[in-house]
Design goal:
This protein has 238 residues and is α+β, with helices and mostly antiparallel strands. The chain is built from 6 helices and 9 strands. The model has no long low-confidence stretch (mean pLDDT 97).
Amino acid sequence: MRPSGRKLDEMRAVSIDTNVTKHAEGSCLIRMGDTHVLCAATVEERVPPFLKGSGLGWVTAEYGMLPRATTTRMRREATAGKQGGRTVEIQRLIGRSLRAGVDRVAMGERQITVDCDVLQADGGTRCASITGGWLALRLAVNKLMKAGDIKTDPLIAPVTAVSCGLYAGQPVLDLDYAEDSEAGVDGNFILRGDGRMIEIQMSAEGATFSRAEMDQLVGLAEKGTGELVDAVQAAAKG
């Protein structure tokens, strides 16, 4: 039995508010259960030096958690003078996941930075950041297309992510913190809306998993990300 009482293949409640900040070209607040992430996309008419003159666009991301996003206060990374390894790893994951859903030629030589700030954490913050980050990106691209700055939609398909794992020996979808902290196996699954897989991060701790169990988790991830695709597409339409 799951601590939340959810079925094995049941997602947490998902709600999304769009255009929640005044200045960002695209923004949303995504809530997956008690994990809440603010995502904002910024468009700049420039690219990193290594892409100058290439005709290719660039999508990158930054990620952070507010000090009281967790049960006890975390020290701001700025006071330590550098980002922690976990933060760097997650924001690189977000960036490369979003780029997998973008035609960078159609995007043109410009950069979109997606900022993901965790307001409240209860497991799955990187997955919520990727899902909300894609929606913020979608809204920013919509503005560029409306203004005529981009002629062809550069977004190939929605990019969404969900966690799955083995909790108490059972395959479960969308782990919250109570499950994630006790799961013998857990993974993050990033998929495109066309069914193509972008990345799977899976590891065991205190348990092992079989090929059959891995296939079960992939099946759960496909179900969960499919539901998230519907949610972000509905939110993008307003």
